[in-house]
Amino acid sequence: MSAQLVNAAHEVDKSFLFIFGASALLLALLTAAMLWFVFRYNRKRHPVADQTEGNLWAEIVWTVLPTILVMGMFVSGWSSYKALRQVPAGALEVKVTARMWTWDFEYAGGRKSKILYAPVGRPVKLLLSSEDVLHGFYAPAFRIKIDTVPGMTTYAWFTAEKEGDYVVFCSVYCGLQHAKMLTSIRAVSQAAFDAWLAEGAVRSEEAPGRALLENKGCLGCHSLDGSPAVGPSFKDLWGRKVILVAPNGSKSTVTTDEGYLRRAILGPKDRTVEGFDPIMPSFGGQISEDEMTLILDFLRTGGKPPKDGRAVAEAEGCLSCHAEDRSVLVGPGFQGLWGSKVTAEGPGGEHDVLVDRQVVLEALSLPGKLQLKGFDPIMPAYPDLSDEDREALLGWLESLGTDGHNVHSGPGGHTP
Ligand code: HEC
Ligand code: HEC
Ligand SMILES: [Cu+2]
Asked: Which of 1, 28, 213, 349 would you label with 386, given CA atoms 20 to 30 Å apart?
């Protein structure tokens, strides 16, 4: 045996065949001997039993033969075991993380995936661990089955010889969705693999929120389409009312706003959603603030592209009083408004105000509160804007603003 075996699976097969063959032979011999004794020494042919004591040859044969056989099985088993444990040099390393109830794969360079991509003909070394309980990585096509243990890294390797999809199971009973803890190994040509690896970084940015939920394993327990799963579906999660149950059984109703969702994800949780088991792991320390923003955005918008703020402004009629550029219609032009200083007048006289998120929110809910100098107080209130529309509008205004040196004056005044 050399350390450069192309594929340990063949060694496993050889060993299996040997042991199977030896067992089959033994079974055949024993059955034949048994039948022979039944025939030759039954009561008709052999009414009186012989008493035989101490047959040296028979004792040698039944000691030596089985010993040889068992040693043969050991040697062949050992050689296949060695092949499984000796990873050829130059193997591609992939990090495998098991968690209830999904598999994550991470490649050099940071690309992650939910199914294991492997180039045909190249040995792949798996470095396995678990985030929660004991699982087992079982890929029968490649004759590997190895435990994944929390807090410990185990390894295994394989070489795919043909392109195709090969199933991967979890081999350790690990809870409710154990049977669904499936993934596959997708063997592709080296060229296709390289292309996939290169394209990866770009593609995972397309829907970063969704990719994150997938990478963090959330989608193993939460559905996106409203279908029932281990946890509540993420569909329309934002802003709904949920009933929470405390360990002592008392119930309370909360609205799923940002603060609540943060706590639900980062824990520690003192209450669980009614009708569900308290098995959601707490992700405190595992989710950065940037990632949290992406997740919350995704939960809020359901991954739909954000609404176009300009379209909202048009639909709500803002553009009949406000121009998109700096020109003044009935109200100040939107361009450059955000982030600029405006002069407001009130009972206490004139004062400068910086137009920021707070000011715009107020303009939409209590337009009379801040009265711009030189304009008529006719800006209507928009108390019924949906959160989504309001955020889209704010985003759009912000994108038009912040050059800092704007002067807005009323229709009677002069435009800079
Ligand atoms: C092992 C399964 C599991 C995983 C993994 C999991 N959750 Fe949960 N999650 C649950 C269960 C069960 C509940 C409901 C019980 C409770 O409140 O703890 C829940 C509740 C929640 C809630 C509150 C939902 C509501 O209706 O109030 C949010 C938000 C949430 N999970 C987000 C996440 C996010 C984000 C991730 C990934 C970072 C994640 N979960 C990973 C099982 C899971
Ligand atoms: C009927 C005309 C009219 C419509 C429609 C209108 N505005 Fe105004 N808006 C004004 C006038 C006039 C002012 C300046 C007087 C004032 O401050 O109330 C103003 C002021 C503002 C300001 C400056 C901040 C402030 O508190 O004064 C913002 C921001 C603004 N509007 C945004 C909007 C948005 C967004 C919409 C659409 C959802 C909208 N406006 C619709 C007339 C209008
Ligand atoms: Cu498992």
From this structure: 213
